[in-house]
Amino acid sequence: MSTMTPTRAPHPKTPAEPAAAPGRVGGGLFDPRQLIASFPDALRKLDPRMMIKSPVMFVVLIGSVLTTVLAALDPGDWFGWAITGWLWLTTIFANLAEAVAEGRGKAQADTLRKAKTDTVARRLAGTTEERVPGTELRIDDLVVCEAGDIIPGDGDVIEGVASVDESAITGESAPVIRESGGDRSAVTGGTKVLSDRIVVKITTKPGETFIDRMISLVEGAARQKTPNEIALNILLASLTVVFLLAVVTLKPFANYAGADEQTSLIVLTALLVCLIPTTIGALLSAIGIAGMDRLVQRNVLAMSGRAVEAAGDVSTLLLDKTGTITLGNRQAAEFVPVEGVSAAELADAAQLSSLADETPEGRSIVVLAKDGHGLRERDQGQLADAEWIAFTAQTRMSGVDINGRRVRKGATGSIVAWVREQSGTISPDADRITDEIAEAGGTPLLVAVQDSAGARVLGVIHLKDVVKEGMRERFDELRRMGIRTVMITGDNPLTARAIAREAGVDDFLAEATPEDKMALIKREQAGGKLVAMTGDGTNDAPALAQADVGVAMNTGTSAAKEAGNMVDLDSNPTKLIEIVEIGKQLLITRGALTTFSIANDVAKYFAIIPAMFAVAYPGLDQLNIMRLASPESAILSAVIFNALIIIALVPLALKGVRYRPASADQMLRRNLAVYGLGGLVAPFIGIKIIDLLISLIPGIG
Amino acid sequence: MSPVLAGVLQLLALIAALALAYRPLGDYMARVYSSEKHLKPEKWIYKAIGANPDTQMRWPAYLRGVLAFSLVSVVFLYLLQRLQGMLPGSLGFQAIDPDQAFNTAASFVANTNWQSYYGEQAMGHVVQTGGLAVQNFLSAAVGIAVAIALVRGFARSRTGELGNFWADLVRGTVRILLPISVVAAIVLVACGAIQNFAGIHDVGQFQGGSQQWNGGAVASQEAIKELGTNGGGYFNANSAHPFENPNGISNLLEIFLILLIPFSLTRTFGQLVGSVRQGYAILGTMAVIWIGFTALMMWTEFAHNGPAFEIAGGAMEGKETRFGIGGSSIFAVATTLTSTGAVNSFHSSYTGFGGGITMLGMQLGEIAPGGVGSGLYGMLIMAIIAVFIAGLMVGRTPEYLGKKIGTREIKLAACYILITPALVLCFTAAAMALPTPGNSMTNSGAHGFSEILYAYTSGANNNGSAFAGLNADTQWFNTTIGLAMLLGRFLPIVFVLALAGALAEQKPVPETVGTLRTNKPLFTGLLVGTILIITGLTYFPALALGPLAEGLAS
Asked: What is the ipTM of this complex?
């Protein structure tokens, strides 16, 4: 039983996840209807105690209140009301962005809550069993779960084995095996036992279980600002102060210039709101939430936003060889005959001798004989009076005796011994070939035959690890992004080197023990590098905790899940690469929108400054390069553009900017062109169009 | 030769001279600040002031050194002026009034050299040479020391140690400023600048009055005035005075001296952080802005606009005929893009746009190339801001020169960029809002506003040049500009040194192809854009009401 691995159907993609093109992080889902649905939440967020978290938007809120009061004092002034209305919209749009981002998590949380129905636990008290509510369980309590029971809390199986339906958490319908001891002992509260009986030792308090944490994570309740987000907020706040000073001090300057009338408090407030970085201020928290959400959509739970940010900075990836870089098993790649034997003869013998070998390696030999040498697959029944010798771990060979001919295939040592036993000869060729294969990192299997001509070795089967398709390209991509991949394997250095070379990884750690892994991480970190790794076993836990990004497989032990800062519900180690890309995309989105936001200011000045001062200094009308219709329409257009751009960018903030792995130079050049230059130019066009529309309203143009 | 061609040739000659000096001087300065050895005279100084030049200082200690030394300097300079009447060699001048003495002391210690006094009518040899000229050396050396401390913050890791302030101060003075000044002074004397301790000469009667000429140690003070980006002239006419700046050659030499150390320090920076290319990127940023501003200035000043300008061949009002429009424009841009503030022409008389260029130059924070030391640290702060915003766009949390720009770093950089705009705008607004300060304006309208805006821009940015026209010798202006100069100098230094400490404590982040490369032309372009947008936009409304309104009025 202990060799059994949980088999699972390929994970069905969650509906929210579009089929991602290779090498590109797909965006999240954005549906304009979400804007309407989240509107009430957006209004609720107008609470100043919540607004103060974003200093930029708090200033806009104060501005909105101020202009409302001013407009109310002069109710006949349509301009004052128009500005007031659009300032309120600016504030609400910002809240809307956040509400939409959070709304998507809420839906997910509701699904999870359903799984967390109040369960009744069958607690073991000594030898007797008592029924208690799941919420009363304490750490180290023992509970019994049988087929049909919902597991009442997180814990480890200490007795028995059962198949468990974890679809409530992973969305994966195929059941998994959970058993006592080893790396598959962890069970999650809220999942359902489908068969057999297990005894679970509870490891978490109620309310702190995995499912509870998941709910609070996807809801954003546990969301804390990440370090980079805090730093960006500081910069935005200081820019806000700078612009506040520029606008406040403008009043005495304008009075001196004789532009007192044109610089009413309403106009100055409008100018201030246009200048402070509202675009990024409004979208900043939505970007962060959406980043976490993109991970959730890929079935990855980040326990902290900090880890997502760190993922963008990772410069070393530690990847386990088996299952991540290579397919799980070695496969036959080549038949190499010794001198005097034809390839077809060897293939035939290899196939015959492997029919009784049900291991993946054995099957791959049959497949190679068929695909590479056109030998039709025979099954054991087809050959009458054949005596099959099945592969066992003890004999380490398999074969068949048929019509006085005995064919054997197996490990070098076993076959050599067998041939010698039959007093046959070992061709010196065979030695050379096996050495060559071993040097190339492969595993040689000998094929031998005994017939009328005596016992002899026919040739060698070259078994090798098969690198997953597309891995080399993935690693090339990572290299272009400046990320070094290190393959971790238990193989000997020779084999490891060969696979590393074939897969295109930058480095490898052979014959790796958990201690070696830990030492490697510490060495990389001492050089200032950030390290990401995946792991599932208890012995991975220290390394997972030490790594900057530690992704625990959901199939892993609770110790591993506890130690990592992310959990992959699909238990797919390759996903580490996607996690890194999502981290980068999050940071790029933040930077791009900040750049865009700041670059926008130039055009707004060209709209508002002439509107305010062209009366005092007619020459300044030359700055009105957009030829806006009137001072009022110019200022209003700038304010409207400033508000609408927030809504226009909500999808971008939620989906993240387009991201393709590339070097920093290429990415910077592209993003600067799109968001820097675009940010300079776009408002000139936008404000002009809005102004054209406004001037069509009778009585304004 | 047409005046335009003459101007362009002067500019090219200047660029060539700066390029020649760049490597040797930059490398030499790097050696000065990393050498282990002390020169004999330096040891005497250390003994005299009781400092141990070999102890390493963390940033608070370094800052204490800067502030204590500067405080003592202010007090010393203040007392020297207040006691002038009792000192020998005072040429009969009396004690300076308290508000003006404070203003002058603050001004020279803050490397600003704003002068609300007339040198030849107020200051004797002792104050000029024993007080002001000495501060010209020391305030410049303080600036370089702070810049070097910040560079060490980038270069060092896992330590909070930034070097020794006393050693940096003394070495900068003894090994860099003094030797170059001596050579420069000799060349200036050769050009015709005066150097003596003669008294006041009556040089006869003129229509409407008499004229007096002062002798003095002019050439020596002139050399360090430019080299240390100080700018306080011996005479009120500053570098327009023939005793200070006799001819076209001396004019070019003075501009060369102004720009020499600030530009070359980028090489020193590159050497100390282990990549001269990083220095080139910073140099490139400075050079693009400087050349761009100079070209704009020459264009606007040469542009013939109206019959008077056409006859004069350009906007010659307020400019010396011996320098012409070219030599004056290059000087005006060099002096306002550094914290020098020396003038060889009157910025108030420039075209509206020309005056605007001088103001914008200062408002950018004087970082292209900026004052000695202060230009480099100001530019590095802007680089941090640029890296922070754009660095995110490469998908990593921002880092510069292998150091993470995290919360603490950005907090300090953000405080730095807040200070001067706050000082300039608040003081100008106060001056405009209050009833009396406006009486000091000699012009009305936009030009009058420019005078006051220029004064606080110059003070808070430690430039020291004046727009002329403004009567700044009032209690209000002496006090507020004095405060602006002190706060505009030392508050940023507090944040720079704190930042240096934070950086030096970090462990370095290795560079990969995923790292934003800050040694490339792309980064230079980005940095120029960031500087123009972030600092430029701060002042756009104010500039619109001053020089822009004036320049666009036709």
From this structure: 0.93
